[in-house]
Amino acid sequence: MIVVMKIDTPDLEIQKVIEEVQSDNITPEKIIGEHKVIIGLVGDTATLNPEQIQQLSPFIEKVMKVDKPFKRASLEFRHGEPTEVLVSTPNGVVIFGQNHPIVSIAGPCSVENEEMIVETARQVKAAGGQLLRGGAYKPRTSPYAFQGHGESALALLAKAREVTGLGIVTELMDPADLAKVAEVADIIQIGARNMQNFSLLKQLGAINKPVLLKRGMAATIEDWLMAAEYILASGNPNVILCERGIRTFDRKYTRNTLDLAAVPVLRTLTHLPIVVDPSHGTGKAEYVPTMAKAAVAAGTDSLMIEVHPNPAKALSDGPQSLTPEQYKALMQEIAFISPVFGRQSQKLPLPTGVVDLKIHKTASTV
Ligand code: PEP
Ligand code: MN
């Protein structure tokens, strides 16, 4: 249930309402929006009577039930106002949100060695990316496949961060590694396979670091939002959702089915920012630029793209990785099309004239 306070309600009055509704079963949460303050009531709200609550103060504009199983993640909980997740990087604050330029996260599937991660980071930065991705702990289907270099890879990510100023996105698999990963990561990634690892999700509530929650490969949109709810309910409001494709019957030509319809659907359900990962979503580099652009058209707030200096030699996910040159060309196209979909482009210069555009198109579809 949410209690919407009128514009310019005095703080004391808000506090009075919070104290009145607080009980063993109900936790009120004050949400400060751009124009209004909302008090979210979470817990056993079935017994609450909205009309009675309305009587608590003349400053209450309205009282509404949230009929979805996810509460804090619901659009109603912020009265329709999109959440902005702020990520501090050495290069400045990067904002994930609907009213901001599209954020680009790029880098290899896994961190392989110092040279490759630092060089990739440099190229990602030069192309206009704001965050470097790279796995230190890799969730692999086979126990015999490369599992990531672990702690030493975290140190290499820290190095790449220092050299380029890019923020770092890296995956946490084991709650025991939380402190180590949080020290290096500016955003902690929770992979598709751990989307419903509830004890891991609860641990993320204890920190304030932004969390990129990937959609489980067989998760419904509601399962996914309930997983986000775990993080929000345990105290961390900085959750970013990442669509990375789901399992369907066709695996012959694509690795997953990128569910781009999830983007507009999520917009009707949640205030949380959205990232689309067309690399895992398709599994093939040749389809990544098309689906990245389609994600922009669908309204994503950010893209996550796997980029490797030599995809043929990558230790994981080479077939779906773009080369730095392909990534650069894609970034130019994204900058060009973003304004058409109501997004400011990033700081990249817009290509001017038909000749430029042709060059970009050819380059990204190599
Ligand atoms: C990854 O980002 O490299 C990864 C393993 O992703 P997912 O959890 O979506 O499979
Ligand atoms: Mn990968």
TrEMBL record:
The name on file for this protein is 3-deoxy-7-phosphoheptulonate synthase
**Alphabetized GO MF terms:** 3-deoxy-7-phosphoheptulonate synthase activity; aldehyde-lyase activity
Supply the EC number(s). 2.5.1.54
Q: Where is the DAHP synthase ferredoxin-like domain?
A: 1-68
Q: Which UniProt keywords apply?
A: Transferase
* Name of the gene this protein is made from: aroF
Q: What is the organism field in this record?
A: Symploca sp. SIO1C4
DAHP synthetase I/KDSA domain sequence ranges: 93-333
NCBIfam families on file? DAHP_synth_Bsub, PRK08673.1, PRK12595.1, PRK13396.1
